[in-house]
Design brief:
Distance between the termini: 78 Å
Number of strands: 4
Radius of gyration: 27 Å
Number of domains: 1
Order of helices and strands: HHEEEE
Largest sheet: 4 strands, antiparallel
Number of helices: 2
Strand content: 15-25%
Length: about 120
């Protein structure tokens, strides 16, 4: 009816396995919210980086043509490549603009970044 254990037979008890599973569950419950925060920070960093890169492309275009542009083709030719899920919007102060602004954000981020060339850069 009952199996006799042999000398030296090793294994884990059910209680030991349940304790390990409970500890892993607690660690996962702590780690998942932290991971979500890290992803949001990474998305915000991508948006900030795109705003800076777009400003650099606009300055590069200006150096070659003596005028700023908001055209995607011109800015792409000047070296700007948008990151997936990041929206950037360049705007000129007026038709003969000597300054420009850029706003950018990530669809899964928490911040919106603004670049104002007349006020010295990232705001």
């Amino acid at each position: 009816m009952f199996k006799k254990t042999l000398k030296g037979e090793k294994g884990f008890t059910l209680i030991e396995l349940l304790v390990v599973v409970a500890i892993i569950g607690i660690l996962v419950a702590i780690a998942i919210p932290q991971f979500a925060n890290y992803k949001k920070q990474a998305n915000d960093s991508a948006a900030e980086s795109d705003v800076r890169n777009l400003a650099l492309a606009m300055e590069s275009y200006y150096a070659s043509n003596n005028i700023y542009t908001t055209g995607t083709t011109e800015l792409s030719n000047a070296g700007f490549k948008a990151t997936k899920n990041v929206t950037t919007t360049p705007a000129l102060a007026n038709a003969t603009a000597a300054t420009f602004t850029i706003t950018g954000s990530h669809s899964n981020g928490t911040k919106t970044f603004t670049w104002n060339s007349g006020a010295g850069g990232l705001q």
